[in-house]
Design brief:
By secondary structure, the protein is α+β, with helices and mostly antiparallel strands. It contains 5 helices and 6 strands. α1 (about 10-25) crosses α2.
């Protein structure tokens, strides 16, 4: 487990004011330039993002499709593996939760693909967690790891938001049992 000591995103109004200021200064009049600027801004914001947990993994040959890139379904496995490792690091492995009658189940998953991983690529799978009532929202991102550099962010690969709810003895719960284990990671 690692804790990246990078500041969080600035407030949204600051983000928009930066885009607006740069757009005026550069006299960007066409949509193409604005899209480029938005992409650059997104990359800058990624550099400012902070995560409460990250693990390094490596692509295995059997995860590739006929195009020699990681099959899209395998990114779901990477994200799930990261959540399971996070739960273990937080003091509650999935199997122990289940034995106590608590099951964390995926309610919703949103994922955007940015660039593919290939055989042998090393990557960082990172997450943050927040709670909204009975839901636990995992902000999970995968970054290609630059060669020869210790645990640093490289090119963004996948960005996702995974919503989890808790079942207690098979019934939907408020999630207080899970929140207890994640309290040091929740704002």
């Amino acid at each position: 487990m690692s804790r990246n000591l990078i500041p969080s995103y600035p407030p949204p109004f600051l983000s928009l004011s930066i885009i607006y200021t740069v757009a005026i200064r550069e006299n960007l009049s066409n949509l193409c330039n604005f899209v480029k600027l938005s992409f650059i801004f997104t990359l800058i914001m990624d550099l400012l993002k902070t995560y409460c947990f990250s693990i390094e993994m490596e692509v295995r040959d059997y995860e590739l499709d006929c195009e020699q890139i990681v099959n899209n379904a395998n990114y779901l496995h990477y994200l799930e593996h990261t959540r399971h490792k996070f739960c273990r690091a937080a003091g509650m492995p999935f199997i122990e939760m289940h034995e106590k009658g608590i099951d964390a189940v995926v309610r919703k998953l949103e994922m955007e693909y940015y660039s593919p991983l290939r055989s042998g690529d090393s990557f960082l799978s990172c997450l943050n967690i927040e709670r909204k009532g009975p839901r636990f929202i995992f902000h999970q991102d995968i970054y290609k790891k630059p060669e020869g550099k210790a645990e640093t962010f490289g090119e963004p690969v996948v960005k996702s938001i995974v919503t989890i709810v808790a079942l207690k003895d098979g019934k939907l719960s408020k999630g207080d049992e899970i929140a207890e284990f994640f309290k040091k990671y929740l704002d």
